[in-house]
Design goal:
Helix content: 25-40%
Strand content: 15-25%
Shape: elongated
Structural class: alpha+beta
Radius of gyration: 28 Å
Length: 515
């Protein structure tokens, strides 16, 4: 795992800063989400509304309220707007079911008025699906204020009632007394949770907001909260996307967002940039997973200590196992990014952990398109993402380094070998290449070379390659590797050192162009 005072490189930290901007929701999406929930609020409060006398209080909860939403992984996924509709009603006068049906009537009328399909009924809320292409759906949760009751229950249990004054009672079809007139309803507290979460980053939040106001020559109150992004918020966004990519084939058992957000908030220590925040959070996150008196996992809701965010871990142990698998992989993957100097290798790590689209976008922000470095890196990305390029088959424990230090080529008409630089001159076909590398890994070890070809000629000849060629076991000196330029295109060579079955070092990619 990342240790205290881990060596965070400038290159890795800067790439991470660019990456989190690509993960964030564009301002236009925040503004659109705001328009959509305000429209629902106005509808519920209109003169003709059957709920007007109950004074609907409509507000956002979830990631849009916390400032931690992320772009969907692909264009088929939707943004979720989580809405609360709190009504001035009493649990003594109606059941959960009756409250939900009251909101359902108005949600159906709203959908009909706006040409939308009829809202769907979920376990706790009503769901509006917007037109295809909007990439939005809205979940409206019916609720009644219940802060006094929640504070009383917490005091009776000798638990902290901080943040609980804004608690609400909510509906849940699966609750055993959903249709019964009684006082014991499920609770939630999105406003209290927001206040707790903001308290964990308050100094940074205020400083960033003041700086934005100064830059815009505006009052601080005029700067929308969604424009303020603290290192804590950014760290949560990065962790959620890493989780989504890791569990893209198993979304049911992936770590849930509220656990990631809560543990990140508890572990955050005021770091001033996202790389340092992630370093600290990944070190300390695990220590905030508690155990109850029966030895079962317990992650209390900071605004309601009677609620255990890890209750599903008890019913489904695979969820707990997956959390720790994800946490360990996150530590390894972030170390491979923030501890690396080489831009090509950073890109490769980011591409695997966060998706090629975000990795490429963050890379394109690295330098002006006209610069030679940017052109070289973009050429390299096509080799990184080639479908025929095989993934490393060995478990990684990269404690050493290896570098392709010297590459020479020779051909008919040249009296002696010529030196070649990565992404340098274009070579003619049938030139002989020799690669030499150095490493600090103690002998003996096994050496492998990965050649990735591109271009129509190599494809038609069935020579795109992409696997790993063994260079044998090195005992006395590092073996050289030879190749012949046979196909027009841009190709890559990378060296890997394997010791006792583990990958202990890999070189940067060396790019060879053939005309």
């Amino acid at each position: 795992m990342l240790g205290a005072g881990a060596n965070l490189t400038q290159e890795g930290a800067e790439y991470l800063e660019r990456l989190v901007k690509e993960l964030d929701v564009p301002p236009s999406r925040y503004e659109e989400a705001e328009r959509r929930y305000e429209s629902v609020g106005e509808w519920l409060c209109r003169d003709e509304s059957s709920l007007k006398e109950l004074e609907p209080d409509v507000f956002v909860q979830g990631s849009f309220r916390l400032g931690t939403p992320i772009r969907p992984v692909n264009d088929t996924e939707h943004y979720d707007i989580d809405l609360v509709c709190s009504l001035s009603a009493s649990k003594s006068n109606l059941t959960q079911q009756q409250l939900k049906m009251l909101l359902g009537v108005e949600m159906r009328l709203y959908a009909k008025e706006h040409g939308m399909s009829e809202p769907g009924e979920a376990r706790r809320c009503w769901t509006l699906d917007y037109a295809e292409g909007a990439q939005f759906h809205l979940d409206a949760l019916p609720a009644v204020p219940d802060g006094e009751e929640k504070q009383r229950l917490l005091r009776e249990a000798s638990l902290s009632s901080d943040w609980s004054s804004t608690a609400i009672a909510i509906t849940d079809i699966d609750h055993p007394e959903y249709t019964t007139l009684q006082a014991h309803w499920p609770h939630s507290n999105p406003r209290g949770y927001m206040e707790w979460f903001r308290s964990r980053m308050l100094t940074n939040f205020n400083q960033i907001r003041e700086a934005l106001a100064l830059e815009a020559n505006a009052n601080v109150e005029d700067i929308p909260s969604y424009k303020v992004k603290t290192p804590l918020q950014q760290a949560v966004q990065v962790l959620k996307r890493h989780r989504d990519i890791m569990f893209s084939d198993n979304s049911e058992d992936k770590p849930i967002s509220v656990i990631i957000t809560t543990l990140s908030g508890l572990a955050y220590a005021g770091e001033r940039n996202v790389a340092d925040a992630l370093n600290g959070i990944l070190q300390r996150m695990e220590s905030h997973v508690q155990q109850d008196r029966y030895g079962k996992p317990h992650i209390p809701n900071p605004t309601d200590p009677q609620e255990n965010f890890a209750d599903r871990w008890i019913k489904s142990p695979v969820k707990r196992e997956n959390f720790y698998k994800w946490l360990e992989k996150a530590r390894v993957d972030f170390r491979s990014i923030v501890g690396e100097h080489d831009q090509q290798r950073i890109y490769e790590s980011v591409s695997k952990s966060f998706g090629e689209r975000e990795a490429r976008a963050a890379l394109d922000e690295q330098a002006p398109r006209s610069s030679s470095l940017s052109r070289a890196l973009r050429r390299a990305t096509s080799l990184f993402s080639a479908s025929h390029k095989k993934d490393v088959p060995w478990p990684a424990n990269e404690t050493g380094w290896v570098s392709i230090d010297k590459v020479t080529w020779s051909a008919k008409g040249f009296s002696r070998p010529q030196r070649l630089l990565s992404d340098g001159q274009r070579l003619m076909k049938n030139a002989a290449l020799t690669f030499e590398a150095s490493t600090n890994v103690p002998r003996p070890y096994d050496i492998f070379w990965q050649i990735v070809n591109t271009g129509r000629e190599a494809e038609e000849a069935g020579q795109l390659r992409g696997g790993f060629d063994s260079g044998g076991t090195v005992v006395q000196s590092l073996a050289k590797h030879s190749e012949i330029t046979g196909y027009t295109g841009t190709h890559s060579v990378q060296c890997f050192i394997v010791k006792q079955g583990h990958l202990v070092a890999r070189s940067s990619i060396f790019i060879v162009k053939v005309k």
